[in-house]
Structure formats: structure tokens, C-alpha cells
Design goal:
Residues 513-543, 550-567, 679-692, 707-725 have a biased composition (Low complexity). Keywords: Cytoplasm, FAD, Flavoprotein, NAD, tRNA processing. It holds the Pfam family GIDA. Its cofactor is FAD. The chain is of the alpha+beta class and 725 residues long. Helix content is 38%, strand content 15%. The strands form eight sheets. The chain has a six-stranded antiparallel sheet with strand order 12-13-14-15-11-16, with no helix packed on it. Strands 9-8-17-10 form a four-stranded antiparallel sheet, with no helix packed on it. A three-stranded antiparallel sheet has the order 1-3-2. Helix 1 (21-30) runs parallel beside helix 9, helix 9 (343-361) packs parallel to helix 24 (705-716) and helix 19 runs antiparallel to helix 23. The longest helix has 25 residues, at 665-689.
Length: 725
């Protein structure tokens, strides 16, 4: 760690989540990770993005208190058993005669022996900051770069390249006129990244504000494009496509006469405002004039200038999906070193790298997350399969299975697997089991309880859906209709009471409460109402049938007793029911694809000698060295005909037996165990999609270098794994 005071520091926007990124955070949390809990503890504001769309793309976003976040995360790391933090600049990776990592050395000549090492260098490796034509060596503002490590990695045979990112100016909120700006308050109903109710405590929310660029803003930018590092020509590193600088926006979208700019607080105890969407490489002398051209900012004072930062990275195709490098065994890469951008992507990689480093130090097999199992699996597969030459950002469109891989079922997909790996403690496991039992019981109740056609709920459903309700329809049937949501059931006392863990006591509240469940917790009258409706429906014969075909009234009444659920659990039940057909279809597709793509490719396969492959396919396959047919099919330049020819070659080689060289018994056993692991993880994702508890799945957790270290210590209690940042 270069600077202990900058553990979990958020150097750009202090925010967590957003489209696809929130799914990563939920998945990290489902495996016992910290980033979601930190965001829940330290949030300034929370909002759900894409709320008008389907649940597959709902995205929770939290503005966080940057100072509180870093202090809280450091405290967690310092209290983690078997994790020791040391400040220093790593300049060399030590490798033995077997091409296995055996230690890391610092600038001051200290060598730390290890069986596994994780490099998470962020933007520090030969970092260079640019403000206009002025530059200085730095990883980020006010912090020295990491030097010497790139050169050592090149000596070891790794390919390196340069990327660029940037951050906008910070301004003093006391000098901003908010009276004419549009306030962007947080959501009234606060949602949570973590599945742990212990961190679900509501706080006072701060507003963000919306302003916009003006013709004067655009004039200043157009007249001074030559003063920026990229358009001036003295920096040619690729920047993030999905987070462009303001000058990039002016050039790319020349037809637009205005762009939205958000003013976002950086903390409760600091006057700094983050000017989102306004990063620039202009000289500092022009930045203040640019800020003054924005409405509400005419008299603002700039506290920190915007800057661009250029840094070294290593294309991640040099890693396996476990994030262990192909050249040096026991050496793992994570975060921006692999070409990604964003705290959430770093967190996901941090867990996988830290977990697998700990497993290697303990002599265990690595964990590989299938693409079909999670957004984390999709992220890792993209990184190690595609030859990326610009900063990678996770998007919902990158996952082919986003209807199955939702935020609400992340724990159903991943927590059992985390439990197997030792990432989920007894308390979290019990919370998970209790939650799934409540969801399963409520879904069974909704399928069992039937509503008479003359019931007020049936009439309300007909009104909102525009469809007639058949006789004795179940509550689940009603939820499947368009525009019918769980709160409608609650308004008619037919939904479950709401457990409010955030209130601190777990007290249930659902409208007017008028009873007790015998535990001292108040419950609404919906349990009694559900039983009454069930009995009434049972007594009334269904249309076209005899009364004897219905279950006995007492049985339906017993099924109709609703147990309290949290709001998130109520929503999960509704999603499972409402989208059941679509989810089942995608689950079948997932199973089919996983079966076809799971065939392992031999580690020693010489692709250049397979004459039936195109020349481009031979080059790409030799460079990436995919682990299975699925990964091979996703490599750019490898077409379906190449995959078919590759399968024919493999079958011919298999039949050739000894001529092609049979794998050793140890290799066969390793391939079988990996295949079984993949099947188990895909089965868990499918099970979650179908509303089951799941048996085992895949996922990961972590974050920055510090979070990767915590995962490593927690996963195997292995003190021989070293994380170098």
C-alpha cells in the first residue's frame, strides 16, 4: 500500500452503484464483501435509476461521504483477523526457477516472501497528471506514482500499454447559487446494497443539483481545444468511452447545444462539490472561466482543478479467469491494472483475485466464475477474452442473461457458494436461510389463496389491468397481470405485513396494525384477512366446477396466513411471479448454452498447427488461450466455422488417443472437478431464476487493493498471500 491514509479513497466521484455497477455491488455483498455495506453506512443520498423499466435494469446508486467511507473501510480492514497492512512502494516481483512468485520487493530494499501476490496498482503505475500543457509525475493529485514495477513486469515478459482517465474540478458549495437550480433529492423509500439488515439504517439525505452547459461554455471549449492534452496531441492514451470529458462531448455531439451537469456533495463535513460530467484537460487558468459559464456557478470558487491522468496497465488477456497470470504462477492482477474503470469493477476483481491468491497459498484449486452465473463472471470473462484497448466499464447490455442475473436474487445465486468457500459467516448464513424460507412461504401462499370475483381486490385488479378476473383466481394470478403490484394486495389486507429492520427492532408495519403475533411485534390485519378470503373462496365453487374440487376451507385458511416480509422480499416474490415465464425461458437457454460451451480445451493445444482454422483465429486463439469452447467462441476474429472446425479437431484428437497424448490422471481429475464446479454454479443461477433456494453458485467480492486483501484473509486465513497496491 503506497499510503495507509488513502485506503479505500474515492479519488473521483464518491458514489457507488449505477447501471450494472449496482448488480456487481449486490453480488459482492452476497459473498460477504464490504463495498455494499460501506455504501449503506456512509451514504449521503440514494436513488434508483431506470425505475420505470424492468427489474433486470433497475440500478441503485448512492452518493457517499468520501471521508467517512475511507475511515470506515480502514477500520474494517484493521479489525480483520490475519490481515496485516504495510505501507511501501513495490518495485519488483520476485520469481523462482519454476516461474512461480516467491516474493515482492519494495523501493527501500525490503523483500516480503509469499506464495501468492495480488497487484492492484490503480492509476499509479508510472502515473502522469496533466492540466493543459503542464504535467507532473503522480498517481493522482498530491500522491507520488509507482515507479519501477512496470519495467520489472516487462522483464518478466508481460505486455503493457497506457490508458487515460480524468476527474473534474471541485468547487466550494458556499459560493454556489442553488436558488435557480433543479434539486435532485434522494428517494423517499431508501433501498440497500447489502443483504445484511445490520447496516440498513436510514440517514438524513442531501440533495444533488442539476445545472447545464451554455453557449458560452461551448465557445470557451471550442476556442481552446488545442490547449487540452488529447486534442493538443501530447497525450494519445485511450480514455473511458462511457465517461467522456466535457471537450469530448462538445466534439462528439456537436449538434447538442447543452449538456446536463450535476453538482454532488462529497461529504457531510466538507464544503466540496463534485461537478459531475465536467471533467476537462484545459489549463487551470481557463477552468474557472468555464465553471463561471454554468448557471448558478457564476461566482463559484474552485477548490481543486480538474486533471487528466495517464497510467500503465496490462491487458487482461494475460490472465486466466481466476485472475492469475499465465506467465507467473501465483501472481494475480486486479482493478485498473487490468484495464477497468470504476470502484465496483475493482471490488469484484478484488475478491476474485484475493480469494484465489489465498486458495493458492493454501494449496487449493482456483475458483472460476462462469459468465452465466453472475455479472462478476461476465466482467471477468470479458476482461480475459477480449483484447481491450480502452477502459472497460460494466454495462447491463454486456450480460446476455440479465433477466436471470438480477440484483434482487444475487444472494440466492451466490451466497450458498460463498458459504462453501468460507466467505459467509454463520450469522449471514442464518439470515440468508431465514429470508429464503420467508420468500418461499409467501410465494406458496400467493399461489394457494384464491380471491372471489366479487372481492374488492378483484375489482381493483380489473380496473388497473383492464382485464376481467376469472372466478377464484389466486393472488399469484392477479400479480401476473400488468400494472398489478404487491402494494395493491396490501391495500386490501391480502399482502404480507412489512418487516422494517431499518427501524432497529424488526417491527412489522403494513398500514393500520391491530394485533400481535405473539412475539411482541405488531402485525397488520392482513393475515386474518387472507385467511378469511381463502375460506370464502373455498366455500364458493369455481366457475364451471363443483365445490368439491376446491381444497377445504380450513386448509386454505391455514395457507392464507401471511408471515411478515421486508419490502425487498415482497418485491422479490412479485418479480419471480410476474416474470416467471420469461425467467423460465431464459433459464432453459442458459442451461443449453452452458452445456454446449463447457467443453474444456487442453492447456497444451497448439492452435497454430490446426490448418482448418483461419489464420486470424489461429493467432487470436494462441494469444488468448481460452479455457473452454464458450470462451473461444467469444474471441473477436474467431467465427462459427472456426469453432466447428476446432470441435472436429478435438474429436479427432480424442479418438487418436495415445497419438495425440492422453492427459494424466491428475489432469483428468482437475478437469472433472472444474466442470463439476461450473455445473454447480450455473445450476445455482438457474435455480435462483426459477425461484428455488439454489444449491451452489459463483460470485466474488472485494474492491480496491485493501478489499482484495480482506477477502484473501477471510477466504483461507492464509498469511502467505500478499496484496501490493
Amino acid at each position: 500500500m503506497l499510503n495507509l491514509d488513502r485506503i479505500a479513497w474515492q479519488p473521483c466521484n464518491p458514489a457507488v452503484g449505477g447501471p450494472a455497477k449496482s448488480q456487481l455491488v449486490h453480488e459482492v455483498d452476497a459473498l460477504g464483501g464490504e463495498i455494499g455495506k460501506m455504501a449503506d453506512r456512509c451514504y449521503l443520498q440514494k436513488r434508483v435509476l431506470n425505475a420505470s423499466k424492468g427489474p433486470a435494469v433497475w440500478a441503485l446508486r448512492a452518493q457517499t461521504d468520501k471521508l467517512e467511507y475511507a475511515a470506515s473501510m480502514r477500520r474494517v480492514l484493521e479489525e480483520t483477523p490475519n490481515l496485516y497492512i504495510r505501507e511501501g512502494m513495490v518495485t519488483s516481483v520476485e520469481v523462482d526457477a519454476n516461474d512461480e512468485v516467491c516474493g515482492v520487493s519494495t523501493f527501500f530494499g525490503i523483500t516480503f516472501a509469499c506464495k501468492a501476490a495480488v497487484l492492484t496498482t490503480g492509476t499509479f503505475m508510472n502515473g502522469q497528471i496533466w492540466v493543459g500543457r503542464q504535467s507532473m509525475a503522480a498517481g493522482r493529485a498530491g500522491e507520488a506514482p509507482s515507479t519501477g514495477l512496470t519495467e520489472r513486469l516487462v522483464e518478466l515478459g508481460f505486455e503493457t500499454d497506457r490508458l487515460k482517465t480524468g476527474t473534474p474540478a471541485r468547487v466550494d458549495k458556499r459560493t454556489v447559487d442553488f436558488s435557480g437550480l433543479e434539486a435532485q433529492p434522494g428517494d423517499d423509500e431508501v433501498r440497500w446494497f447489502s443483504f445484511d439488515p445490520a447496516v440498513q439504517r436510514p440517514r438524513e439525505q442531501l440533495s444533488c443539483y442539476l445545472t447545464h452547459t451554455t453557449p458560452e461554455t461551448h465557445r470557451i471549449l471550442r476556442e481552446n481545444l488545442h490547449e487540452t492534452p488529447v486534442y493538443g496531441g501530447w497525450v494519445d492514451a485511450k480514455g473511458p468511452r462511457y465517461c467522456p470529458s466535457i471537450e469530448d462531448k462538445i466534439v462528439r455531439f456537436a449538434d447538442k447545444d447543452s449538456h446536463q451537469i450535476f453538482l454532488e456533495p462529497e461529504g457531510r463535513s466538507t464544503p466540496e462539490l463534485y461537478v459531475q460530467g465536467f471533467s476537462t484537460g484545459l489549463p487551470e487558468r481557463l477552468q474557472l472561466a468555464l465553471l463561471h459559464s454554468l448557471p448558478g456557478m457564476e461566482n463559484c470558487k474552485m477548490l481543486r482543478p480538474a486533471y487528466a491522468v495517464e497510467y500503465d496497465y496490462l491487458p487482461a488477456h494475460q490472465c486466466h479467469a481466476s485472475l492469475e497470470t499465465k506467465r507467473v504462477k501465483g501472481l494475480f492482477f486486479s482493478g485498473q491494472l487490468n484495464g477497468t474503470t470504476g470502484y465496483e469493477e475493482a471490488a469484484a476483481q478484488g475478491l476474485v483475485a484475493g480469494l484465489n491468491a489465498a486458495r493458492r497459498a493454501a494449496g487449493q484449486e482456483p475458483v472460476v466464475l462462469p459468465r452465466e452465473s453472475s455479472y462478476i463472471g461476465t466482467l471477468l470473462d470479458d476482461l480475459v477474452t477480449k483484447d481491450l484497448r480502452e477502459p472497460y466499464r460494466m454495462l447491463t447490455s454486456r450480460s446476455e442473461y440479465r433477466l436471470v442475473l438480477r440484483s434482487d436474487n444475487a444472494d440466492r445465486r451466490l451466497t450458498p457458494f460463498g458459504r462453501q468457500l468460507g466467505l459467509v459467516d454463520d450469522r449471514r448464513w442464518q439470515l440468508y436461510q431465514d429470508k429464503q424460507a420467508r420468500i418461499d412461504a409467501e410465494r406458496a401462499r400467493l399461489e394457494a389463496v384464491r380471491v372471489p370475483p366479487n372481492h374488492p381486490l378483484a375489482e381493483a385488479v380489473e380496473a388497473v389491468s383492464g382485464q376481467k378476473v376469472p372466478a377464484a383466481a389466486s393472488l399469484a394470478d392477479l400479480l401476473r397481470r400488468p400494472h398489478v403490484h404487491y402494494p395493491l394486495l396490501q391495500r386490501h389486507d391480502l399482502g404480507a405485513p412489512t418487516l422494517d429492520f431499518a427501524a432497529g427492532s424488526g417491527v412489522a408495519s403494513a398500514g393500520e396494525t391491530n394485533g400481535s403475533n405473539g412475539t411482541g411485534r405488531s402485525v397488520s390485519s392482513s393475515s386474518n384477512a387472507s385467511a378469511a378470503v381463502a375460506a370464502e373462496a373455498a366455500a364458493a365453487p369455481a366457475e364451471g366446477t363443483g365445490g368439491g374440487e376446491q381444497p377445504p376451507a380450513e386448509q386454505q385458511a391455514q395457507q392464507g396466513a401471511a408471515q411478515p416480509l421486508t419490502a425487498a422480499e415482497q418485491e422479490a416474490v412479485e418479480i419471480d411471479i410476474k416474470y416467471e415465464g420469461f425467467i423460465r425461458r431464459q433459464a432453459k437457454q442458459l442451461q443449453s448454452v452452458a452445456a454446449k460451451h463447457a467443453r474444456r480445451l487442453p492447456d497444451d493445444l497448439d492452435y497454430r498447427s490446426i490448418q482448418t482454422l483461419s489464420m486470424e483465429a489461429r493467432e487470436k486463439l494462441s494469444k488468448i488461450r481460452p479455457r473452454d469452447i464458450g470462451q473461444a467462441s467469444r474471441i473477436g476474429g474467431v467465427n462459427p466455422a472456426d469453432i466447428s472446425n476446432l470441435l472436429v479437431y478435438l474429436e479427432t484428437r480424442r479418438r487418436g488417443g495415445a497419438a495425440a497424448g492422453d492427459p494424466s490422471p491428475q489432469q483428468q481429475q482437475r478437469q472433472l472437478s472444474r466442470k463439476a464446479q461450473r455445473k454447480a454454479m450455473v445450476a445455482a443461477a438457474v435455480g435462483a431464476a426459477q425461484g428455488s433456494n439454489g444449491e451452489g453458485s459463483s460470485g466474488s467480492e472485494g474492491g480496491s487493493s485493501s478489499e482484495g486483501g480482506a477477502a484473501a484473509a477471510q477466504a483461507a486465513e492464509a498469511a502467505d498471500a500478499v496484496v501490493a497496491a
